[in-house]
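Internal ticket - ligand job 530, guanosine-5',3'-tetraphosphate:
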Amino acid sequence: MSIHPEIAKRRTFAIVSHPDAGKTTITEKFLWYGNVIREAGHVRAKANRSYTVSDWMKIEQQRGISVSSSVLNFPFEGCQFNLVDTPGHQDFCEDTYRALTAVDAALVLIDSVNGVERQTIKLMDVCRMRRTPIITFINKMDLDGKNILDLLDEIETILKIKVAPFTLPIGCGKLFKGVYSIADNVFHTFNKEEGKQEFIQMTGADDPRLDEYAGENWIREFREQYEMITGAMEPFNRDAFLNGEMCPVFFGSAVNNFGVRQLLNAFADLAPPPMKRESDVRVISPDEDAFSAFVFKIQANMDPKHRDRTAFLRICSGSFTRGEKVYHCRTGREIRLAAPTAFLAKDKEVIDHAWAGDIVGINDPGLFHIGDTLTEGEKFNFTGIPDFAPEFFARVTLLNPLKSKQMNKGLAELSEEGATQLYESLKSPVPVIGVVGELQFDVLQSRLLAEYGAEVSLDRVPAYGIRWIFGAESDIQKFTAEYAMDCMFDKERRVVCLFPNEYRLNLALKNYENLKFSETSQPEAMILRS
Ligand code: G4P
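stdout (structure tokens):
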């Protein structure tokens, strides 16, 4: 069966980067190329970027930052791009990880001055686990950045993925001359002042015209790098790319709109259309006629006037039309998708038809959990949408004892939404919460008060790390007896252990060889590669 053209043209991806690498800037350029916004001008102040700042929650507005991921759609060169935005401030939340379960590819954006940074490393771990195809863009070439070979080496050694440079820069900083496209020997000139970009066909890297454009010193360095890269490095291998083992690398400058179009072209050409996905029953192919989707994100109170929740669905197979009934596999209920919406951050737009690869929002009357599967009637559950190990933990103490019902409801709902993970200690009635980014504690505290009327204090629990424990029932029981003080149940009543230090974890690994200590709630959270 050949893939439906509507599905074949979908490119669903996310941007993996550290704050300030230029994610907002490049997103703006993408939207401009997609004709979604008219102005190509420079990036405006953050507070005015309403299409990329999803300032849905009060706390976000107070802090002037974007906490929640949003989804942007734009057409380009015959493809339909769905960009799943990942929260981009210092503290990020589980939504950032989960956005990566909904995509088929990722753009890794690296700041040429700072090189590979912490948040990129964490997000890349999720991409590697899922074998997500990666395309890398090294941004800010108009600044005096790190040496090109050092940057490529950082990607290989720190992000643990082989690099295949598609372009090579000539010069950098104030003397940035442009990039040379290795495959077709085209020199793309950079001229910041005049904003003029030219594409000049060269006969090869030794074309004497390059010397005129680049100057003696830069051209020597470029030719050395060119020799090294084309001579010693493994050539681009599409299968390795699709398997998340090798990434094409491009250089440019987002703010100057330099190299962005080439990057989008590469995405259209190289990034895969919607991929096959694994379920607990069988593998689901995107070209199956029957509709299927999973919930990867739940966002509460997007509209402060109504207490509403929106569930974000990633469609995995087939298509669906507004008003169609679908089957909710976890509860066995039939539900009607009355007003599915596509998103441009805050501006919702009701859509009539959506295809595999698309992301749509539906109104959630409190029915959905993250990871829920929707189908046309067949019963199965998509796998690979795990809970990720939080890094910060706190005990929740209610300050007004009369509000205990409200606090419990709030904690349960916020954990269903994925804003936090809620644990029940084996030895204590005080609930423990875990978050991926520290800022989530503030978000939680203020949401519990604003939305549920429960004032709480959060007492931090110092911990080395949390692990889900998998293995034979008897082994788990033996383990929980010994580690009772550190063991808890998660919301699905799976056993987790909060290790206070590395030593305790290593001891457990040594003494309980039959158990698996997993950093996600699904030990093999993979998607299939077609
Ligand atoms: P983020 O979403 O990843 O956090 O980054 P963002 O796009 O907001 O970019 C961070 C800063 O880097 C911005 O400057 C932006 O203008 C700048 N920037 C992005 N791309 C380039 C580039 O190619 N070259 C140079 N030199 N700078 C770049 P800012 O001063 O923090 O914000 P603003 O006042 O420009 O809004």
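Auto-summary: The CA atoms of residues 225 and 231 lie 10 Å apart. Residues 17, 19-25, 43, 45-46, 88, 139-140, 142-143, 253-256 surround guanosine-5',3'-tetraphosphate (CB under 6 Å).
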